[in-house]
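Section 5.1 Outputs to date
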Amino acid sequence: MLRTTARRRALVLALALLGSTSLAACTAGPAGDGGRPRASATPADPAARPDLRRFYGQKLVWRPCGDVRCASLTVPMDYARPGDGRTFVLPVARAATAVPGKRVGSLVLNPGGPGEPGAKLVEDGVADELGKGVRDRFDVVSFDPRGVGGSEPALTCLTEDDTEAGDSTEPGDGTEAGDGTGAEEDRTGAADEAPLYPRTTAERAEALAGARAQAAACRKASGPLLPHVGTVDVARDLDVLRAALGEHRLTYVGWSYGTSLGTSYAEQFPRRVRAMVLDGAVDPSLDWRQRALGQSAGFRDAVEEYADSCADVVGEGCPGSSPGEIRALIDRLLDRTRREPLPVDGSEDGVGTAGLVDALSLSMYTPEAQWEGLSEALRAADEGDGTKLAALAADGVETPDTETDTAEDPAEGPSDDVPEDNGEAALIAVNCLDVPHPRDAQAYWDALAPAHAAAGPYGTSGVTGELVCEDWPAGTQRPHRVSAPGVPPVLVVGTTGDPATPYAEAVSLARQFPGGMLLSYEAPGHTGYGRDACVDAKVEAYLVSLTRVRPGATCAP
């Protein structure tokens, strides 16, 4: 399961896209078939259903919002009962192509999550960071998925009483759902934080009670929405958006969780895909335990890579003069925080082991932007000050001599009514609905020892992070291999050192798509498009001209 803070996801994507380069010298113009439909709608196509015509036939009404245009898309809350009057209204943002005469169509982006709003990304200028070949030929579009960001209604796990009390965190003890890093929320732990490896009956009862309390709070605050925010429904919304944009076929880039959304779209609407890039792939054939253990091992390996490669990325700022010294420092801090949290300036709480694991894990996404800040935080922690680690655990980024909180002002978001916890609530809701979880807590306890053997505290944190899904409304999805007959070649980008979506999942996903293409990026960090000129060139040539990537294609920094 994917778990990162909404603020970190937005920041990492923005930083990644800053590396995009021009394709002016390597693109030959739009594809010969442009946006022509590959096949007409068939009776099985939901767009042909009479009860969905009012949604598929809607026209977006664009209005200025900063330097781009914004609109609202209405979709049924329940596609099985689209006429019952219940809907989601989703924010959409578009940055028009820079050269209308070269326009191929709309390029729809999903920045990941789940729980990351897309409209704000476009409003903040992400289109201007794309390569010139893409920017000249596509309107760049994104939207807030159902329940997320400015969606109306929006998910929350805070009740009215919680909001009035000023409670900006989720209930429970930090055992929330997620991608297995233990890094979703600011758990810069008080001295009595729940252990990452609950061994005793009392510790396990406490962990389970906290997770169930969290699930109960989400049901109380958002119960009617919870069955309707899964990725299958978001993919159907994406097809309604495609139609509202006037596109016969979809051109799409999804990062991280956005690969799950793209895969679901391709399975439901294979002949409505023009081009699809899935970067940081999630393998739909894995079950909850395989996902948790695989990703936990990914974060452990990424921290090992940090120790090995810190000098190459950070130089003299590393917290040790050799990989061995860096590993020894991290081990000292793990041992120290087990005994007593590190003090944090301005807070009665300190950084415990969970907070340390959070800080390490969240710093593995974009090494070129994050490892220097992590190194500084580890040096300070070794001297007894956990303040910088606390900032990393909360926000996922700490850069020297700059502000650490990179979140946008809530007042500048898509709606003043969006609850503060919306990204966290959406992440839990989607993950628990999409991936079946055991109803018996013993299954989680049985996974702890293998997780600890495979990845130490990263592994046990990954397992306890799944507990909230034990008492969650069940979805209909099951682990499965991709079935998308008729889909054109899909490009999967896999970063060999990706901690959040391990490279093996990209290899597997590319093989599952008929004609699937794999582009390997030999580097640490999460995702590749926007971080490397070679990756950018191949991705954008495919998007613009449908240029295929040859088998075995590899890029390296």
